[in-house]
Amino acid sequence: MSQLFSLQGRVAVVTGASRGLGLDFARTLAEAGATVVCVARTTAALEAAVEGLRAAGGAAAAVTLDITDEAAIAAAVPDIIARHGRIDVLVNNAGVIYRAPVLDTASDDWRRVLDTDLTAPFLLARAVGRHMLSRRYGRIVNIASVMGVVGRATVGGYVAAKHGLIGLTRTLAAELGPDVTVNCLSPGYIRTELNVALQQDRAFNTMLETRTASGRWGTPADLRGALLLLASDAGAYITGQSLVVDGGLTSILA
């Protein structure tokens, strides 16, 4: 069974890999044997993350890239392939969120969320998908959210983007199969440095613990098994799916 989940010899690209869930995803793939190409916009934080992965015994490289820049993606993907020989796994993790009621959301703020959370995964999947098809192997994992299956006030752009990402995933699965699988990993509320304010909100915590079957926040460790399933040969017959890892939140949330 361990061979099914092994990524030994694989090359994985992870966006938003300098911190938070992206860094933990990169660590998980490296520990499974992959060479992980870590992508982010901030060079200093990215290089620190890669140094940490290497210090832990993993194989990792850094690529500074603005994933909303189509021309930059067109140049970066062939360069990664030239340096590492191929791309076996793509994890579209990078994302942003803007909090305001829809009626108070400026068009530029709406576009910024959609550009990062939906258009960028499309651009990367298109570029990397062509390469994967030529090799007749690939795993694309788009990081969506429970906000891709439910709605929530004040995060309209994020909700719209994540719903769109799940739809894009299903279409890509239809177009890139049978040799390339495309799935979403859709986390619930996971403790990271990006949502400390929510973690400290007593009313929100009470709601979450009451309406989550597991009775708690998730942690990055709770996503590792699901990621490996979708990124490895263990998930070869899973495609076009949104795997929700939320402790039961969306099963009982009213």
Provide keyphrases for this structure.
single chain; 254 residues; alpha/beta; Rossmann fold; seven-stranded parallel β-sheet; 7 strands; globular
3D structure, described in words:
The chain has one domain (11-188, 219-241): NAD(P)-binding Rossmann-like Domain (Rossmann fold). It is an alpha/beta fold and 254 residues long. Helix 2 (43-55) links the parallel strand 2 (35-40) and strand 3. Helix 1 crosses helix 8 and helix 4 (107-135) runs parallel beside helix 5 (156-176). It is globular. The N and C termini lie far apart (38 Å). The chain has a 7-stranded parallel sheet with strand order 3-2-1-4-5-6-7, with helices on both faces. It contains 9 helices and 7 strands; from the N terminus they run E-H-E-H-E-H-E-H-E-H-E-H-H-H-E-H. It has helices spanning 20-31, 43-55, 70-84, 107-135, 156-176, 196-199, 202-211, 221-231, 249-252, and strands spanning 11-15, 35-40, 59-64, 89-92, 138-143, 180-187, 242-245.
Number of strands: 7
CATH superfamily: NAD(P)-binding Rossmann-like Domain
- Which segments are poorly predicted (pLDDT under 50) over 5 or more consecutive residues? none
| CA-based gyration radius | 17 Å
Rounded mean pLDDT is: 97
Distance between the termini: 38 Å
Count of helical segments?
A: 9
What is the strand content?
15-25%
Q: How many domain modules?
A: 1
CATH architectural type:
3-Layer(aba) Sandwich
Side-by-side strand order of the widest sheet:
3-2-1-4-5-6-7
Overall structural class, as computed from helix and strand content, comes to: alpha/beta
CATH fold-level topology = Rossmann fold
- Based on Cα principal axes, name the global outline: globular
Would you list the SSEs in sequence order as H and E?
A: EHEHEHEHEHEHHHEH
For this structure, what is the CATH class? Alpha Beta
Largest sheet: 7 strands, parallel
